[in-house]
Amino acid sequence: MTAATKRPPARTRRVRPDPTPGRSPAQAIPFLLPGLLVLGALVVYPLLYSLVRSFFDRSGDEFVGLGNYVDLFTDPRTLIAFKNNVIWVVVAPAAVTGLGLILAVLTERIRWATAFRLVLFMPMAISLFASGIIFRLVYEEDPDQGIVNAVTVGVHDVFASPSSFPGARPRDGRALTATPDGYATTSSHQNGDVVTVPMVGFAPQEMPDTAAGAAVPVPKPGELRGVVWLDVSAGGVASKTDPEERGLPGITVEAVADGTVVARTKTGSDGVFTFPDLADREYALRFPSDNFELPFRGLTWLGPSLITPVIISSWIWIMTGFAITFIAAGLSAIPRDALEAARVDGATEWQVFRRVTVPLLMPVLLVVFVTLVINVLKIFELVFVIAPGSVQEEANVLALQMWQVSFGAGGDQGAGSALAVLLFVLVAPAMLFNIRRFRREQT
What pLDDT shows up at residue 19? Predict the structure, then answer.
């Protein structure tokens, strides 16, 4: 065969690969379009509108520039809200993350770990509004309604007995006068005198069963005597002992000379007291306040000084289940070989936790912490529900302040929009941080 009859080699034709299903933008747009429309209507448009609205006055007709933003940092209520948000960000996310880490590690060692975590996660199934109502009742000041004060009063009464006759006070203000230490006689007494002390302000039906009928004792030389009784009988003579009136037993009475307590005694079942061994001189009789102090009724948890810690503690209780769930999932992904190798090398459980478990869990802990920071920056329902109206200013946060300024008594949507923009600026860095971490983990 000659060279002229040889055929040139056939060209290899490059075949373009078929497009991978699901990777074409044209195919994705029909599926993404409804979500993009909803996102634009509910997020992008309100954000842009709030940004534009923040440059206008209350009515929305006059352009004020940065005036609303200047007012934010000169308004005392906004400054209080900003301070409280700082407290929330510093305390609450770290507390929830730390508590969730500890409980997640501990529950790995128990048999009913799943049930325990389920119970802790249950508060997340309740709306924050409903949880706020629950905690409003939990921290109620009346111990008959608020469980926290009921426990506080119970523990207090174990170590400090309540007074025998709380709220009792002398009927005749001329015979006894109030002092920092209780009540004291306005005149001096000596041996042979009989002192009568009628009391009111105590319910007769609450008198102890040991109380006997009151009667004025007979004077006796060398002894200072008296009687303390509840002078509240109907139809009786005021400041006089009547047959149906009973003495106040167990009342402490002190004999005071020159400002010093020289003798102390207690009343009997009939309210009679006696000082048998006093020197011949004049004494003032004092009835210590311990006899009549009102019972301990707990703390004012919903008052101005404790309202923010109370709301933060409520949020911690609610969100701990969220942290446990995420951290427990991270724990299950930790290679057990690393933990066992550390134990074989002689590390204690604390050293394994601190030097192996925590470093391996750090990406998860960081995501949980940042997510909680975003959550506390937007906190609204708990503060609105738990804090009574009289102390809402002390518990105020930026989200609540934004609502009050925009839709409350203020009705200034220009200033409210400026607060919304400020809140978005504070939340955006944390959101971007989380998004970058998620993308980094997927690559």
Answer: 53
pLDDT digits (tens, 9 = 90+) for 184-229: 988 899 999 999 999 988 988 888 888 999 989 999 988 999 999 9
Residue limits of CATH 2.60.40 in the chain = 169-291
Mark residue 437 as left, alpha or beta (left: phi above 0; alpha: psi -120 to 50; beta: remaining).
alpha
Question: Going by CATH, does the domain composed of 169-291 fall within 3.30.310?
Answer: no
Name the segment(s) of the chain with CATH classification 1.10.3720.10: 51-151+301-442
Among 236, 290, 299, which Cα is nearest to 266's? 290
Quick one: which H or E segment has residue 122?
none
51-151+301-442 is classed in which CATH architecture? Orthogonal Bundle (1.10)
Please state the length of the chain: 443
Among 404, 402, 403, 397, residue whose Cα is nearest residue 418? 402
Cα torsion 240, 243, 244, 245 to 10°: value is: 40
DSSP per residue, 198-245: EEESS-GGGS-TT--B--PPPP-TT-EEEEEEE---TTS-TTS--TT-
Q: pLDDT (tens digit, 9 = 90+) per residue, 60-75?
A: 888 988 888 898 888 8
Percent of the chain with pLDDT over 90: 36
- Nearest-angstrom CA–CA distance, 46 and 421: 11
Q: Is the confidence at residue 244, as pLDDT, over 90?
A: no
Contact assessment for residue 130 and residue 386, using Cβ atoms and an 8 Å cutoff: no
